[in-house]
Amino acid sequence: MKSRRKSMIAKMIKIVAVITIVFVMGASRMMEGTMHEVEAAGRSVTIDSCLISGTDVVCGLKTNSIPASDDGKFYIYANEVFEDGATGDIVAVTDAGTSVTVSFPLQYNTAESNLSRKFLVAVKQGGQMVQVSDEHYITNPEAIATCTATRKDAGIKGILPDLEKSSKEEVQTLGIKQIVYNIALDDICVDETVPGAIPFPYNGKTYYFNQGMISKYDSMIRSFNIYGVQVTIVLLNRGDGIYTQHLVHPLATGEEREECPGYALNVEDEAAVNHLKAIGAFLGQRYSGYFDCGQVDNWILGNEVNARTSWWYTSSDSLDFNVGIYVKAFRILYNEMKSMNANVRIYNSIDQEWNRKSNPGSFLAKEYLDQFNYYMNREGNIDWGLSYHPYNSPLYDPYAWNGPEVWVKEDITTPYITMQNMDILIDYMHQDEFLSPTGEVRSISLAEIGYTSSFGSENQEASIAYGYLKAASLPDVDAFILFRQTDDAHEMESHLALGLFDLAGNPKPSYEIYKNLGTANEAEVKARASEIIGMDIDEMISQNIVWTRSGNGVVQ
What we know:
By secondary structure, the chain is an alpha/beta fold. Helix content is 30%, strand content 21%.
């Protein structure tokens, strides 16, 4: 039995962060293609801000040393995400200076829209345009949003619903406050040849969406909203739709393409990027709560995107490349959705493999998060959220409160972050460089977590109680969403009986546990969990007491 002290964790985080920065800076000077190669030497101009003001974009530029130029001018370029250097459109020209403010038209919802473009400063040297600043995106797209529906933030208790049971009001009976559901772009995107397709004119072109699928999602989302349930949607790119093949990244196509359930989005050409902009705008508008189609408060882009060969496939094993294209897709969807619904939140998604890869094709969750945050700060800080999946390790381990000591550590070097050591992640997100533009800790959604009953219903009961109560004790956690409501036969082949209902539709003992958590009957749940665990669960959580056991987690 051990007790964790948050001050020690914070100190360890700072030490490790300094070591990491020193190592990365040295490595980036020695190796081409490493994490910070994007910071080219000689970019002496800083774009401090790019903000929408009325119908214009206003950029603030600063420099301690005005770069030499042929004409004493700064040229502001607006690039699409797939364009690098001084290759896009020149949207403004201004006299060079140490502190300059420049504006140009937003041109919203036109073929020349600047909403999701990236901006840079160039000067003319020897008749050639030379980039002298890093890129910067608009960071306040919500400034033009006409939809500002109040978010349905009523509690963290959530579930991946079984829609058949939901229609029988089981979600309401369980006291669920949030649900998560997957939408694949392959299912909703069509073209004008499909009968009844929903037209969506945007940026000078008309795009089309599947009437049948969209109507089903409308009905589902409205139904949950009626009962005050907050909806989170995970956007997936399965790569199998006949109308969405161009949305699959070029390095996720061809003979080398693996059989993955998720593929990286194509941010490399104009047609795909424009389509992605329209998708973001369409979904952000339709599910803003203003059009009788339902309200989605949270969007998660992809699933466990650090698991490259499993969920966000490309053939490249470069961390910087994979994070870079994910960031571009994220920027597009963030700006397009927030321009429609000011109060929507957009999340990235990583798994629990903090410092260990169970699959060599994956990236460490910590290194992916670090690199994502680096790009976000470098190119304009926005209010992104973190979706984290703190499963046990191994996934089928039945003890949420007593993990294998080899996998669950009490400091930043831990191989895995589970609910036991979740405060490590919380402390990490409290660092200054991870804070939102307003200086707040970002929204953290535990949007997928589950505990198996394959090794006894009692273990599932206690694990669910421990996981939920631990999450509820952490103010920065905005969602605890169980995966799933009903067992899945395929998952059970791997000892993952994660549902509150078995395959026959019968509620397990864990059903009553979850139903009573967060209610007046919670004391009974705590007593039951304490009995199973062998210690008072309130004491264990309030004192950050962590039990670990020897071995690798294989259940005998």
